[in-house]
Amino acid sequence: MAVHYLGIRHHGVGSAKNVGAQLAALKPDMILVEGPTEISDVLSVVGNPGLVPPAAIMAYNSIDPKESIFFPFAEYSPEWVAILYANKNNIPVRAIDLPASISFTLRSESSNEEQDNNEPLRDPLDYLADISGYRTGEEWWEYHFEQLNNDVSDHFEAVAHVMGALRSEGIPSSLDAENERREAYMRMLIRQAQNEMYSTIVVVCGAWHVPALSNLEGTSKSDVKLIKSLPKTKIKVTCTWIPWTNGRLSMFSGYGAGIYSPGWYEHQWKTKSNTEIEWLSKVASLLRERGVDIATSHVIEAVSLAFSLARLRGKYYVSLQELNEAVLSIMCMGDAILLELIKKELIVGNRLGQVPEDIPKVPLQEDFEQQIKSLRLKLTAEPKQYDLDLRKELELQRSIFFFRLEILRIKWAKRTHSRTKGTFKESWITEWSPDMMIDLIDKAFLGNTVQIAAQSIIMGECEAAQTVTGVTDLIVLTIPSELFDCIDALLEKIVALSSISSDIIDLMKSLPNLIEVSRYGNVRKSDLTILNTIVKQLLVKVFVGLPNACYGLDEDNSNQVFLLISRLNDVIRLYDDDDTLQQWNETLHHLIDKDGVHPIILGCICRLLLDAKELSEQETDNRISFALSPANDPYRVASWLEGFLKGNGMILIYDNRLWNLIYSWVSLLKREVFMEVLPLLRRTFSTFEFGERKQIGLKAKQGIVKENIKVQSFDDEDFNGELAALVLPVVQQLGGF
């Protein structure tokens, strides 16, 4: 009865090749791999055509899925090679590490007091790297064990010898206390496999553990004692496979150390010969796709330079370091940005694995994947944009699905600006990360489908909402998500809050979104009659309370109200309701003559009434002249101007009377006063478009405009209506009227 220990580096290409060769030579009847015992049940999936690496086993607490740990695999992972060999040859394979349930319990109980005053421990291989002149232990291992093509049995014997020497010197590992528990548990399960009378047992584990695991006889009693001291736990751990990405392979999670060049490792695994030439050919193809002029000679010169660098450094092989330096010099012409592109696209890569549809999943996860399939969406590791036309049924359903995920706070799909205007257009960008699967499983208790889970969140937040704005934000999500079962509860909550609320500012914040939803819902064919009724009720409340709410406000609050009035004015004029618009104009008329209102609000209201033709030209001129009077406080004048101009400088360009008044007011300011009000004026003019600012600057060089341009009026005696009528057919034809 023999036990063979294969010490490996997780995700090591050379280790994976050696493991495959050694298994073929030994022909074991039992394989044990490093990993928590709970994952043994899902190892049988390896070899299923639907399971395409990179993929990871997710072991999570069934009660609290956020408490989870991952075990990622690439096709060049030594453990993957061993498990695949076992499944193809119908021999048992087990995970023998400390159960995840115990690890979760230990993690929650640990206070880390023993490490508070200690410096972080080094990788044991770093000591060998220091002696041999390598930068890191990873480089040392790569040189001596991943690239050398020695006899396979000698390879693993050498690994055990090196690790034994390091451990005998008392060099600590980064997880000494945890390693003692893990190694004791692994030895116990190895003995158990021996007792089951398997003739040839192979243990595939991290190289550091080999000396400890091979000492089965001298540790039996101490292992029993240590294992009995482990905490009892009632945590139920569930395991499932999830897709992984190349980028996530660099994570230091679970049993596996991360790698920084998964795309390069995959290339080494798949390429049987001329690895360096094939790699540089890939680099050349990528650069050509990006419009870089790369010739065959560039590849030849880069190969030559890479091999020369390796020889100068005394290496017997060309590493990624030499290849990158050759690419930077020859193909990128020293441009580090192009090298970053190569690192992203090739060295790391955007590959996303796949998992079979029939593996065990929580119901919410199953519904999510089913909807992904029915809506013809794809989970990709690289960003993908969807431009949706809500008039098409499939794209409307995609939008609904994306909004529901937004409610669930699954950040796979993010809204972005649409390239075309219109309420029937939406743009979303999707980018998948394995972390999102954790968030999805964590929401499983909310319901078995995405729709039910989203409804649960809306209803819970509705009950907790304390402001009308808070409920409005929920409605803004609920309507496009078509969670109509929640609408009644939300509307009742708004009625309840608005009936007792005297916070006009809160109502003004909520109304623009409500009005936009009431208009937007028509595109989605939603019945929003009740919502429109509530909008009108809230508007009346704002009309009545706004004048008093504006009284006596300080500058900060006045600026906030100024922006709210401007936005509310815009949506009311789009609301297309004459009675509401008339009531709004009456409110503004009442407010413009009210004492104790900050000038920025008064200026804003004057401009809004002027644009709505609610003020005559003479009355507007009088109010502007009064506001810009030299007798007024310069700070109040600057604030009034900010409110009046309201981010639109065209009125200064075309209204010469207003221009002359402002120019005269500025020219009469004392220098010290001008310097103090200048920041206020800069803030006002900074909101203008670039072209507007340029024209205003040119006009300022002229100073006072002495003559206004006379505009032809229809009331002029010289106007000839018959001649003007002759032009109308041509104008109609050109305009397409």
Shape: elongated
Head-to-tail CA distance between termini: 94 Å
Broad structural category: alpha/beta
Radius of gyration: 36 Å
Give the rounded overall mean pLDDT: 83
Total helical elements: 32
Main beta-sheet strand count, sense and barrel state:
4 strands, parallel
Low-pLDDT parts are: 111-117, 252-256, 708-714
Number of separate strands: 10
Strand content: 5-15%
Strands side by side in the biggest sheet: 1-6-2-5
Report helical residue fraction.
Answer: 55-70%
Quick structural summary:
This protein is an alpha/beta fold and 737 residues long. Helix content is 57%, strand content 8%.
Description:
This protein has 737 residues and is of the alpha/beta class. The chain is 57% helix and 8% strand. The protein contains 32 helices and ten strands. The strands form three sheets. The chain has a four-stranded parallel beta sheet with strand order 1-6-2-5, sandwiched between helices. Strands 4-3-7 form a three-stranded antiparallel beta sheet. Strands 8-10-9 form a three-stranded antiparallel beta sheet, covered by helices on one side. Helix 11 (275-289) crosses helix 12, helix 11 (275-289) packs across helix 14 and helix 21 runs antiparallel to helix 22 (529-549). The chain is elongated, with a radius of gyration of 36 Å. 36% of the residues are buried. The model is unreliable at 111-117, 252-256 and 708-714 (pLDDT under 50).
